[in-house]
Predict the 3D structure of the following.
Amino acid sequence: MPIHFNDLDVVSAAAGLKSALIVPCNMCPAVTVAVREKKPFMQLLKSFLKSAPFDEYIRTLQSRLKEKGVKTKVFKSNLYHQWFMCMWTSRRQKKLREYAKQYEAVIVFGCESATETVLDAVKSTDCKVIEGMKTTGIMNAKLRFHLPCNISFEDCRTIPISR
Ligand code: SF4
């Protein structure tokens, strides 16, 4: 089910900026990163509300942007129902708009629908919207549960959206 992505060159796209708010969709992009790194998507006993590989991916990006003079903050979605940016409430979009006003750009990690959610939220601001990933298809994978409490995706293939 999750959408599969390739990375885009966010550091180049953010060149010249001083600040950016990173807005990640915690579902499909997190699955993409976990599968690519052959790591569990979730380790429920270790980190109940986050996918460690994606968390690390975002932190590495923040360090790379910092080296280029771009200060960043992550707009965190800690509750499960906030993970899916394609289904955000208007209250959540309003909150993003309030946060985004303090930054020159929003860097969004997610599909076209996630980007649409962000564009909608920030349309009344001066924020530039930068996409962090590009959709390549839909994943076909086997969901596996491992002890102690890990969730992984195995035998993954990327199926093009229109054949
Ligand atoms: S917004 Fe896009 S990337 Fe995020 S959960 Fe929905 S379909 Fe997946």
Remarks:
- The radius of gyration is 16 Å.
- The chain is about 30% helix and 30% strand.
